[in-house]
Structure formats: structure tokens, C-alpha cells
Amino acid sequence: MKEYEVYSSLKVPKNSKIIVRLDGRSFHKLSKDLNLDKPYDENFYKVMANVCEDLFKEFSPSFVYTFSDEISLLLDKLPFDGRVEKIDSVIASFAASSFVMHYDVDFKKPPAFDSRIIPISDDDVYKYFKWRQDESWKNCVASYGISFLKSKYSNSEANDKINGLKSSDIHELLYQNGINLNNVETYKKRGIAVYRKNKKVVGLNKKENRQQVSYRSYTYIDWEAPKFNMEFFEKII
What we know:
Radius of gyration: 21 Å
Structural class: alpha+beta
Strand order of the largest sheet: 4-1-3-2-5-6
Distance between the termini: 43 Å
Number of strands: 6
């Protein structure tokens, strides 16, 4: 029956760089079940950051980025010999397990993530993550916009009023009502990034009886991510 496993041999080409993007399945309903704070739930984002850290330590990506219920991993070392089925299934299931582990509640329904593989060139890495960060900003504007409107109108009226509005229109609406999105926490606007940083370590060289400086890398969760540009990725990847 092994011959029926027609997709099991499908592989990403060797020496390829890929992005694995995870999306929460039915997380809109999950947010209702968990009674998350609107427009942003601080604990939910802490959990998502923890999931990203777990993914970073387990699969050794170069970079991980998350906003809302979405996670993107940049991989230049392919796990599972590049097998597409294994990469998609294991990384998605690992993320779901990590999410449950860090979210210490009784779920009404098991949370899940879907997964897709995106081949990427070095030149397009910045473009991809800028695209996703731009989506993070749009999500921030829309989340604050609908939350504000629902505080004034019924759900259906609020949805009708926001339908068709551009991000700039929503931003101006919020500003006119005393909500300046420039002042909200950075992670809400730009998402959360996980990557390696170096820290300075001063120790004693006993052989030479003198202080010695070295640098060690560690996993860094960046809640104050900058606006992505080429220089940022050239520095960290």
C-alpha cells in the first residue's frame, strides 16, 4: 500500500530557502470561546510569542514573525530532508501543541493551525516580511476601528459603517474621537519578531589571568520591532 502515498516523496529542492506560514484555524470563533479582550488581548499575544519562541528553538529558523493568529518562519536549513508533507504537518501540529501548553485553559474545541510552504529568494525575504508587517498595521487599524464602532453601535451597524472604509479613513475616524494609533504599543502595529542576538560576556581567562570578552547568541523576542527594511534583515539574518 506504500505506493498510495503519492505525495510523501514531494520535496522542497535542496539548498532552497523557504517560508512556512501558519494560520490559526477558526481563531475568530476561538477568540469568542476564550472571551478575549478587544481589540487586543495581551495574554493571547504573550502565548503567540511563546509559541514562536518554541518554534524557533525546535526548528532553528533564521527569523520568526507573528501578528494576529499568523506565524511566518524563515528556514534556510530544511528540516525532514525537505519533505513537504512532514514540514507542513509537524510544524503546524507543534505550533498547536505549544499554543495549548502555554494557554492554560479548557478549550471547547482543540485549536489548530494550517500550514503552507512559500519558496523565497534572498532578494524577496525583505519584501515578504514588509508585506506581512503592512498587513499587521492594517489589522491594527481595522481592529481598533471595529472595536470603537461597536462601543457606539450594534454589531450589525458597526459592521455596516466600517465596510468599504479605507485604513486611512478609519485612522482619521479614530483620531477625531481621541484615539491616536501612533501611541499604541509597538507590537500591535508592527507584530512580534523572534531572532538571534549576541550578548557580551566578560569572563576570566585563567591561563592568562586576565579578563576576556566573548559574545554569545541567544533567542530574542522583539516586542518593539522596527519598520522592516533591507538593513534590518541584512543585520540579523
